[in-house]
């Protein structure tokens, strides 16, 4: 099936089909195919046994001219996985990725990742929370639960327990495909039941009354959902509120940040967000954890001084 003289881009395409088709999520698979297109464009005539350190370094350098360092790192990771298998199969004698130097463009100025409590209140005051289900209601729900956008889009009326003010997240909505459909959550830990604001719970109960219990409540009938549309609406509200524009995913960070600042434990926040482990939560919100450590150290010193 494979030979050392076959074109590397052909080898990579077959490698994706052999090892990645059906074993990774569609969104991850799409990234591998994007990597293949880059290989096809930049190394169209290079054969597997011709890959060497110079060719691969030049290949990565050229890719790095138009991409940031972290993007280059992920791209290299996708390429290297196939190269390692080629070496193991005896198609390559030496590792062309050894001693690789990763480069990348200067990162763009980062947008605000989360809002403080005052700015979040200003944003919520701008939302048009009318008597019909809308993206504004979804924005509010994400801000108050920290769920992922795809998880919110996958919610149906039967996922809510309005008596106990909880919502069960057990699926997502594939908004990236031309014809949207339900799909599994990101990981096993993402299947969870979380509490929601009783006031919002009562409001949503009225909004979904009489609707199909198995149909996603935030997905328009016979229309595709574009996250860019949701983000544009959110940005408009942020500008009207006089605050730094934030993305819909930024509301998830906002929710988690406010909980941690308020003293909610990392394990509890991780469980609410559906993280696979607390390490993910700690790494994502490390800046907040460090700020709290400084604050706690001040409190410790103040207590020690009082004991003197």
UniProtKB/TrEMBL annotation:
PROSITE patterns linked: TYR_RECOMBINASE
Top-level taxonomic group: Bacteria
Occurrences of domain Tyr recombinase (ranges): 110-299
Keyword DNA-binding carried by entry: yes
UniProt KW keywords: DNA recombination, DNA-binding
GO biological process, one term: DNA integration
CDD domains to which the protein is assigned, alphabetical: INT_ICEBs1_C_like (cd01189)
An MF annotation (GO) of this entry: DNA binding
Keyword DNA-binding carried by entry: yes
Family recorded in the similarity comment: Belongs to the 'phage' integrase family.
UniProt cross-references to PANTHER family, sorted A to Z: PHAGE INTEGRASE-RELATED (PTHR30349), PROPHAGE INTEGRASE INTD-RELATED (PTHR30349:SF64)
Protein name: Site-specific integrase
């Amino acid at each position: 099936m494979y030979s050392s003289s076959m074109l590397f881009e052909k080898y990579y395409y077959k490698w994706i089909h052999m090892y990645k088709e059906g074993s990774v999520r569609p969104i991850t698979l799409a990234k591998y195919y994007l990597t293949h297109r880059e290989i096809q464009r930049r190394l169209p005539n290079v054969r597997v046994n011709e890959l060497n350190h110079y060719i691969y370094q030049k290949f990565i350098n050229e890719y790095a001219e138009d991409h940031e360092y972290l993007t280059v790192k992920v791209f290299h990771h996708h390429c290297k996985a196939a190269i390692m298998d080629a070496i193991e199969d005896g198609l390559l004698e030496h590792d062309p990725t050894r001693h690789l130097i990763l480069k990348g463009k200067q990162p763009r100025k980062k947008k605000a990742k989360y809002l403080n409590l005052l700015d979040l209140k200003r944003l919520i005051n701008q939302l048009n929370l009318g008597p019909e289900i809308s993206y504004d209601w979804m924005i509010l729900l994400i801000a108050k639960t920290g769920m992922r956008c795809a998880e919110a889009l996958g919610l149906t009326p039967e996922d809510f327990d309005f008596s106990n003010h909880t919502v069960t997240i057990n699926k997502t909505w594939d908004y990236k495909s031309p014809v949207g459909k339900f799909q599994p959550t990101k990981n096993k830990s993402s299947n969870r039941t979380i509490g929601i604001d009783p006031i919002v719970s009562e409001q949503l109960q009225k909004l979904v009354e009489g609707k199909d219990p198995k149909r996603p409540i935030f997905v328009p009938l016979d229309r595709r959902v574009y996250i860019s549309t949701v983000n544009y609406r959110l940005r408009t509200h942020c500008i009207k509120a006089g605050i730094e524009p934030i993305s819909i995913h930024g509301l998830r960070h906002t929710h988690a940040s406010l909980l941690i600042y308020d003293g909610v434990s990392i394990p509890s926040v991780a469980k609410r967000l559906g993280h696979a482990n607390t390490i993910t939560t700690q790494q994502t919100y490390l800046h907040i954890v460090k700020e709290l450590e400084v604050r706690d150290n001040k409190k410790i010193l103040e207590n020690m001084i009082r004991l003197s």
